[in-house]
């Protein structure tokens, strides 16, 4: 997932780039509004995080222009301006979400992932991408092995969806936790319990995927990686 981060505070920007990259994002940083507009015109992004108080071209102007050229781009406004008028102005300019500073990174990441889920293009009716013998339909929230449905709980589905989205890449435990919490208004008080349950759900999911030609590999100290088995042909 490719993310544009427009933030003029160099220290904050460096920290956010490092955290987003650790969470599996590819990040382009714009230190001012002019660079942000250049990058938006040159590259396709999955989402953007815009500070309002950008030098050269302010964030609201960047946002309004982006809405003309990239109307479907999910945009989160990140700013120290927390007044009602400021929030209304940001949302009216086209922001999909609004987060004020100071903030906790897990909430920022959860909000971005929630935006990505809501704006993910729907699959055509009947479409079911396949990995090995596993086919999955995100719109219907169902998975099948050789046409037989797999009984998945909501958390198991979210876990499988995340692993499939990052197929052949390591998914960190923090990503799994925030994916689960994002649908619960990013209630980080539940994070420790969610982390403690990850191995349980990985074990359950592995058992349910037996015979699918798909495996979930533990990458010690990092997280989990979903990949198709070499002999998974039909």
Would you kindly provide a brief summary of this structure?
The chain is α/β, with parallel strands linked by helices and 234 residues long. It has helices at residues 10-22, 33-42, 59-69, 84-92, 105-119, 154-165, 173-182, 191-208; strands at 2-6, 26-30, 47-51, 75-79, 97-100, 130-131, 134-137, 142-145, 148-149, 171-172, 214-219, 223-228. The protein has a five-stranded parallel sheet, sandwiched between helices. A four-stranded antiparallel sheet has the order 6-7-8-9, with no helix packed on it.
Question: How would you describe this structure in keywords?
Answer:
Arc Repressor Mutant, subunit A, 234 residues, five-stranded parallel β-sheet, 2 domains, alpha/beta, 8 helices, four-stranded antiparallel β-sheet, Rossmann fold
In words, what does this structure look like?
The chain has 234 residues and is α/β, with parallel strands linked by helices. It has two domains: 2-119, 3-Layer(aba) Sandwich (Rossmann fold), CATH 3.40.50.2300; 130-228, Winged helix-like DNA-binding domain superfamily/Winged helix DNA-binding domain (Arc Repressor Mutant, subunit A). It has eight helices and twelve strands. The protein has helices spanning 10-22, 33-42, 59-69, 84-92, 105-119, 154-165, 173-182, 191-208; strands spanning 2-6, 26-30, 47-51, 75-79, 97-100, 130-131, 134-137, 142-145, 148-149, 171-172, 214-219, 223-228. The strands form three sheets. It has a five-stranded parallel β-sheet with strand order 2-1-3-4-5, sandwiched between helices. Strands 6-7-8-9 form a four-stranded antiparallel β-sheet, with no helix packed on it. A hairpin with a 2-residue loop joins strand 8 and strand 9 (148-149). Helix 2 packs parallel to helix 3, helix 6 (154-165) packs across helix 7 (173-182) and helix 6 (154-165) packs across helix 8 (191-208). The chain is elongated and about 55 Å long. Residues 121-128 and 185-192 have low confidence and may be disordered.
């Amino acid at each position: 997932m490719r993310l544009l981060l427009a933030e003029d505070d160099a220290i904050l920007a460096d920290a956010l780039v490092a955290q987003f990259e650790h969470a599996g994002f590819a990040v382009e940083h714009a230190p001012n509004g002019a660079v942000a507009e250049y990058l938006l015109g040159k590259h396709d992004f999955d989402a953007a995080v815009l500070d309002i108080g950008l030098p050269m071209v302010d964030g609201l102007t960047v946002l309004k222009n982006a809405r003309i050229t990239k109307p479907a781009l999910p945009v989160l406004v990140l700013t120290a301006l927390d007044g009602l008028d400021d929030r209304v102005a940001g949302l009216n300019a086209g922001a999909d979400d609004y987060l004020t500073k100071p903030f906790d990174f897990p909430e920022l990441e959860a909000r971005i992932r929630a935006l990505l889920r809501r704006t993910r293009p729907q699959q055509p009716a009947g479409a079911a991408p396949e990995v090995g013998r596993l086919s999955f339909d995100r719109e219907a929230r169902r998975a099948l092995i050789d046409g037989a449905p797999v009984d998945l709980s909501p958390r198991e589905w979210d876990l499988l969806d995340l692993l499939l989205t990052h197929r052949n890449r390591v998914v960190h435990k923090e990503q799994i936790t925030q994916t689960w919490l994002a649908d619960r208004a990013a209630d980080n008080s539940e994070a420790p319990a969610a982390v403690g349950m990850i191995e349980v759900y990985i074990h359950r999911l592995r058992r349910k995927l037996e015979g699918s030609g798909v495996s979930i590999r533990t990458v010690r100290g990092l997280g989990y990686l979903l990949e198709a088995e070499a002999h998974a042909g039909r």
